[in-house]
Design brief:
With 182 residues, the chain is an alpha/beta fold. The chain contains five helices and seven strands. The N and C termini lie close together (11 Å). The model has no long low-confidence stretch (mean pLDDT 97).
């Protein structure tokens, strides 16, 4: 079983990469699945402008960058979205990349690790409605990192309770991924 941990920000100075590496470290220590970082920034997914609706593209895309993104997502059985909250919602680059694909997402499990002034919880609430469109199962447990409580001058410094929250989310994600995978 392969679970992709998606670094959902492409901004310079982003916190998502440190968060995703923290998630990866905690996940790999479990030994219950293969975990892989998928850095959205490395794919340079263009704005969705194709005349063909992604759901009808049958994984055949007009742009090589979208094809590479498609292959990376299609190779995973489940996901952890590491998502910042931008203006009380999801980051535009990750939403565009999500919307650029179709069948690659269908019927897979997803967990959420968010961050923002209030833990990024509003971004996750928006993600839950988007992933439901592809019949994805978003697990209930999530990790919500606060910019003022889990980050400092030294970077990411999760509160003591965060590793248990991460374990709780993965405790739901891994079995759900297995069930959906068949």
């Amino acid at each position: 079983m392969k679970i992709g941990i998606i670094i959902g920000s492409i901004r310079e100075g982003r916190k998502a990469e440190a968060v995703a590496r923290w998630v990866l470290e905690g996940a790999q220590a479990r030994g219950d699945a293969d975990y892989e970082l998928i850095d959205l920034k490395a794919f340079d997914v263009p704005l969705l402008t194709s005349a063909t609706v992604p759901g009808a593209a049958k994984k055949q895309y007009d742009d090589e960058r979208v094809t590479r993104w498609s292959q990376a997502i299609d190779a995973c059985d489940g996901f952890v979205f590491v998502t910042p909250e931008y203006n009380h919602s999801v980051p535009g680059a990750l939403k565009n990349a999500f919307d650029s694909l179709g069948g690659e997402w269908i019927g897979k499990a997803v967990g959420f690790v968010s961050y923002g002034a209030d833990g990024g919880v509003r971004a996750v609430e928006h993600w839950r409605t988007s992933v439901a469109n592809f019949q994805m199962v978003g697990v209930r447990a999530q990790v919500a990192l606060g910019l003022f409580t889990d980050f400092g001058d030294e970077g990411l410094g999760p509160l003591d309770r965060r590793p248990a929250e991460l374990a709780g989310m993965l405790d739901q994600l891994v079995p759900m991924t297995g069930k959906l995978r068949g």
